[in-house]
Amino acid sequence: MLIVPERLIADLITAEAAYEAVEAVFAAMARGDARNFPVVREALGHADALYGFKSGFDRAGQALGLKSGGYWPGNMAKGLTNHQSTVVLFDPDTGQPSALVGGNLLTALRTAAASAVAIKRLARKDAKVLGMIGAGHQATFQLRAAAKAHPFERVVGWNLHPEMLPKLAAVADEIGLPFEAVTLDQLGQQADVIITITSSFAPILKRAQVRPGTHLSCMGTDTVGKQEVESGLVAAANLFTDEVAQSTTLGECQHAITEGLINEADIMPIGAVINGDHQGRSSDDEITLFDGTGVGLQDLAVAAMAVERAKAAGVALEFEM
User: Fold this and answer.
1) Could you give the CA distance from residue 228 to residue 197 in angstroms, rounded to a whole number?
2) What crossing angle do the helices spanning 15-31 and 296-313 adopt, rounded to 10°?
3) Which residue is catalytic, options 67, 78, 120, 125?
4) What is the distance between the alpha carbons of residues 19 and 276, in angstroms, rounded to a whole number?
């Protein structure tokens, strides 16, 4: 059994590599060659932690396994990341465990890669301004990945706690993009592409604040009850997602479904666009929205790539079972 510890991941997986892995698995899902299994997510009743499993099998990529982990809100005070996860891979031919992979950085990279795939496929070609709603740890990965996927000219940002925005501004400066802190109204007026990456349980962005032709990548809603944009905005958009089943039950589309504003048939897997089975954006005036719920197959894809690269570099740790 191979072990690829967290400390090695940064040297093995780049944003570009994560993009490649995530795009391929989205395409496999849309073809029916890969399947996610039901998500398990529970409150532990200890340390205020949420804990769960995401699993699946990618027949095309021969990746079978699960990601185990969750959210421990007290970790930062201990010098640890609040989000903790580990990926376990199995041999699909025998069921034997084949690899144990640190999943913290991989989770951040694959989440940002999913948003970047959607931006590349759905944003207007002439989009110039990127709007960022949220300024936490994941937002920095989102910004970097979006800038690699599309040639933005500047970035505008808003966060509930504005004192966190300088961290995002520093990343924008690092990649050579001007950054401005703005109000939500100003963000909607200026941004051609908007990424929402918060942990909100109440809508932040309203339909009236978003211009025609905007693309939104909504990346923060991955749990029942969470919501980043109002249901009317979801209903007004051409909708895409990583997985329809999760989008309707725990993703950004859950509320519009419950309110009867949209149907499941209104939501298209992004893999259908990648495979050429759906045109994606149909006009420069329509609003497109990608509901990034986060699927286990994304984790397996980037973890499998990390294992192969670790083996090639001779840095994977090997143990007898």
Assistant:
1) 8
2) 130
3) 67
4) 18
The single residue listed with the structure tokens 């079978």 is 64
Give, in order, the Cα–Cα distances in Å from 95 to each of 24, 64, 90: 23, 9, 6
CA nearest to 138, candidates 80, 217, 198: 198
Q: Closest by alpha carbon to 216, among 294, 119, 142, 88? A: 119
Report how far apart, in Å, the C-alpha atoms of 62 and of each of 57, 101, 180, 293, 301 are: 7, 16, 44, 23, 9
* Catalytic residue flag (residue 67): yes
Q: Residues 166-215: pLDDT tens digits?
A: 999 999 999 999 999 999 999 999 999 999 999 999 999 999 999 999 99
Nearest to 67 by CA among 99, 45, 23, 95: 99
Q: Which of 204, 9, 179 is nearest to 110 (CA)?
A: 9
Give the pTM.
Answer: 0.95
Query: Do 194 and 216 contact (CB within 8 A), yes or no?
Result: yes
Q: For the segment 242-285, what is each residue's pLDDT rounded down to a tens digit?
A: 999 999 999 999 999 999 999 999 999 999 999 999 999 999 99
Q: How far apart are CA 113 and CA 53, in angstroms?
A: 21
